């Protein structure tokens, strides 16, 4: 099992400086959000090319780090159709060049439905779901062309709020190029926190075979008053059963990449040592 983190964890920096600083961490890979991490190269829509992707990948490789996943966190249900089209096109561009970066996964969350709720309190979930399904269908079709995976990350406050909804989108868009980015702590809120082990088990039972990447953090209470979610903290400092999760993850997906979240760069090596100790 390989451990990594967000490339911009050390800041938004010129590429050479970014990779050098990441090379000081005992990570195996990064989740690379191009515009968040690389400060000296324009990677906006229309700028990517095989040469640029290879150049970026080579700098990471010099530090012994691979690019495990491209983070392209769009809002696939954005209420402005013009903005939504821009974000879809940007994601599709990432899919086209993913292999040149050395990965096959492009990841995103699925946006919230607040605007739709304010417009139609009765039908907002139906409306949002229809838009999400249409977007995922288009992204999956593009992923199939390029041998890549759309990594969807369910979050309790977004459109894919539960393990059951994650399973539903997989069933309704029957493409094997849709994968799951599982961050179990993103599925917890005050309504299910006491049965968080059940939520984790349901996730594995419903889509364990589709996991392409895991995110790992920990959680503590009290809950956020605005959205009812617990506070996120670095792994090993909260109440989440990290050891149990890693064991189950290994049973379902041996050697899957695990991206560490809510951990400062200066604490990363300590957390990696802790996780490797649990994973023996």
TrEMBL record:
<dbReference type="GO" id="GO:0016853">
    <property type="term" value="F:isomerase activity"/>
</dbReference>
<keyword id="KW-0413">Isomerase</keyword>
<protein>
    <submittedName>
        <fullName>Sugar phosphate isomerase/epimerase</fullName>
    </submittedName>
</protein>
<feature type="domain" description="Xylose isomerase-like TIM barrel">
    <location>
        <begin position="24"/>
        <end position="262"/>
    </location>
</feature>
<dbReference type="InterPro" id="IPR050312">
    <property type="entry name" value="IolE/XylAMocC-like"/>
</dbReference>
<dbReference type="Pfam" id="PF01261">
    <property type="entry name" value="AP_endonuc_2"/>
</dbReference>
<dbReference type="InterPro" id="IPR013022">
    <property type="entry name" value="Xyl_isomerase-like_TIM-brl"/>
</dbReference>
<dbReference type="InterPro" id="IPR036237">
    <property type="entry name" value="Xyl_isomerase-like_sf"/>
</dbReference>
């Amino acid at each position: 099992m390989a451990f990594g983190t967000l490339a911009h964890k050390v800041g938004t920096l010129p590429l050479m400086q970014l990779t050098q600083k990441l090379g000081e961490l005992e990570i195996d890979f990064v989740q690379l959000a191009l515009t968040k991490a690389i400060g000296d190269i324009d990677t906006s829509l229309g700028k990517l090319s095989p040469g640029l992707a290879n150049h970026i990948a080579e700098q990471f490789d010099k530090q012994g780090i691979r690019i495990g996943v491209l983070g392209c966190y769009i809002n696939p249900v954005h209420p402005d159709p013009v903005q939504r089209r821009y974000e879809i096109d940007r994601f599709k561009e990432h899919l086209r060049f993913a292999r040149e970066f050395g990965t096959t996964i492009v990841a995103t969350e699925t946006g919230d439905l607040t605007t739709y709720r304010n417009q139609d309190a009765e039908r907002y979930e139906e409306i949002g779901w229809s838009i999400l399904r249409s977007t995922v269908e288009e992204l999956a079709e593009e992923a199939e062309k390029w041998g890549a995976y759309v990594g969807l990350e369910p979050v309790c406050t977004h459109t894919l709020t539960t393990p059951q909804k994650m399973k539903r989108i997989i069933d309704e868009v029957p493409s094997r190029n849709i994968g799951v980015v599982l961050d179990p702590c993103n599925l917890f809120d005050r309504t299910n926190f006491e049965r968080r082990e059940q939520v984790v088990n349901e996730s594995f039972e419903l889509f364990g075979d589709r996991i392409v990447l895991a995110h790992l953090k920990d959680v503590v209470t009290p809950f956020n008053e605005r959205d009812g979610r617990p506070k996120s903290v670095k792994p090993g400092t909260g109440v989440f059963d990290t050891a149990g999760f890693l064991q189950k993850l290994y049973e379902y997906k041996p050697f899957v990449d695990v991206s560490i979240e809510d951990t400062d760069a200066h604490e990363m090596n300590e957390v990696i040592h802790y996780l490797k100790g649990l994973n023996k």
